[in-house]
Amino acid sequence: MTLANYISDLLYRYECIIVPNFGGFITNNKSAKIDSINQTLLPPYKQITFNHHLKNNDGLLASYIASVDKIPYKSAINFIQFEIENWKNKLEHEDLFLEEIGSFSLEDEKLHFEPQKKINYLTSSFGLNSIAAPEVKRIVNKKQAEKLEEKAPIILSAERKKAPNYLKYAAIFVIGLSAVGYSAKLYRDYQNNQLITTAKEQQEIINQKIENATFVITKPLPTLNLDITAQKQNYHVIAGAFRFPKNAIKKVNQLKVSGYNAQILGVNKWNLSVVSFQSYSTEQEARNILVNIQDGIEKDAWLLIQEF
Q1: What is the pLDDT of residue 16?
Q2: What's the pTM value of the predicted model, to 2 decimals?
Q3: Domain 235-305, what fold?
């Protein structure tokens, strides 16, 4: 799994996910709204924003990774650090896309974030889809009636004459048009009432399905046990970097047999798994061990210093 996958998992449960030395993802609950462009009614959702000032490690993300992958907390911290370095290197040349979260771009040395809109992280809206609300098209007969009225001449005479038959027919025709117009208005009102009634019935059916639904999470997220009181060990004596993870695991097992507290620190920007003999809290202690290892075990060993 990538770092973006772990962040995506936590967005369902928490309102703020801090990525050390990068920034924090914040969620805000938004009410349902109407999309006038696409003519749809959208359900309530979680809006994702990004704050680059939130960089201090609160332990949540690293503890979750350590719990899911069953690795030490320090290894999870190292994994996050390597991922962040890859993100920053990529942003120097192109946009960064984080699956199921959004995209980043660097413009004038300012980081811009555009959230994705496909996934709704609000669990209370689970099962709610957008509802189409097409615009009602109305039939206007006024202009047509006016044109027809202009074609029916009315002759005025000083003498009283018997009205020709065609005038009677014209009068009947105009009255008929008025009746048609009134009937069309009644029909439009009937259509509008039918649309409103149908929409209410559909929404009621959806609400009943949601109330009666039983949601079973087959793979619940593990309980997080935060333990960040241990002293930081930022100085690592490196045994090597391996392209294939199985070789890195094999090397760790060999070093543990020899008595070292070996571990995989993470994956660097060249996609190599970095393996350490052991990690130390002071630089002097790490350099003393490094000299002994270079003299007797591995002359190509080297020292990695990480700053958090």
Answers
A1: 93
A2: 0.45
A3: Alpha-Beta Plaits (3.30.70)
